[in-house]
Amino acid sequence: MVIEDETALGEVIKAAFSDENFEVDLAEDGETGYFMGISGIYDAVVLDGMLPEMDGCEVLRRWRQEQIQTPVLMLTARSELEDKLTGLGLGADDYLTKPFDMEELIARIRVITRRQGTVWLEHLTYKDLSLNLNSGVIENTETKQQVRLGKKEFQLLEYFMRNSRQILNREQIAEKLWGYDCEAEYNNVEVYISFTRRKLKYIESGVTIKAVRGIGYRLEYRND
């Protein structure tokens, strides 16, 4: 999520991250961003420090008080050391001062998301399946067969691989792929699961996405 009150800048940041296979939601004031953030569905937040309705530092303070541990990068025109220390002291994971280089912003977001739990670099792996996080290519590590995923297929499979021990319901998946308060029909989830299953079958992986009746979906391996 990007919380930025400069509309043009927010759209530029969203476009840059979308080009890197991120799904991005925008909020233009602190109060809206705060309520979107407490959903807990985001992998990272770019948070402007000076916002209408609720200041960025106040947004961050409330999140951390409520045990929302989503990684946050503070983005602000303020450059004084005291302001940086305030943001970091409230629980920000990183700090970048405007004007900034977009490639650096993307790189920093990748770094802070890797700090959570297991460190993933360029690939996610599960059983005989490897997902390249940069190219969106999946590979059967035993046969070396490969195929490239579409954007939503990539986001879907990444979500499952990062939560390989969990059953994910359709609501969780829809929010993850289409964002907070999305209007995507639940059958869209089933459509993209079907597309992804075909790609897994194409490379002859033993991994598939199994429906758990009345609950949701989870990854399954043929030998389990």
Structure description:
With 224 residues, the protein is an alpha/beta fold. 40% of the residues lie in helices and 20% in strands. The protein has eight helices and eleven strands. It has helices at residues 7-18, 30-37, 56-65, 81-89, 102-114, 151-162, 170-178, 186-202; strands spanning 2-3, 26-27, 45-48, 72-76, 94-97, 123-126, 129-132, 137-140, 146-148, 207-212, 216-221. A five-stranded parallel sheet has the order 2-1-3-4-5, sandwiched between helices. A hairpin with a 3-residue loop joins strand 10 and strand 11 (216-221). It is elongated and about 55 Å long. The model has no long low-confidence stretch (mean pLDDT 88).
Number of strands: 11
Structural class: alpha/beta
Radius of gyration: 19 Å
User: What kind of sheet is the major sheet?
Assistant: 5 strands, parallel
For the terminal residues, how far apart are their CA atoms?
36 Å
Number of helices: 8
Average per-residue pLDDT, rounded, comes to: 88
What is the string of helix and strand elements? EHEHEHEHEHEEEEHHHEE
* Weakly predicted, low-confidence segments: none
Largest sheet strand order: 2-1-3-4-5
What is the overall silhouette? Answer: elongated
Helix proportion range = 40-55%
Portion of residues in beta strands equals 15-25%
What's the SSE blueprint?
Blueprint: E1 2-3, H1 7-18, E2 26-27, H2 30-37, E3 45-48, H3 56-65, E4 72-76, H4 81-89, E5 94-97, H5 102-114, E6 123-126, E7 129-132, E8 137-140, E9 146-148, H6 151-162, H7 170-178, H8 186-202, E10 207-212, E11 216-221
Parallel strand pairs: 1-2, 1-3, 3-4, 4-5
Antiparallel strand pairs: 6-7, 7-8, 8-9, 10-11
Helix pairs in contact: 2-3, 6-8, 7-8
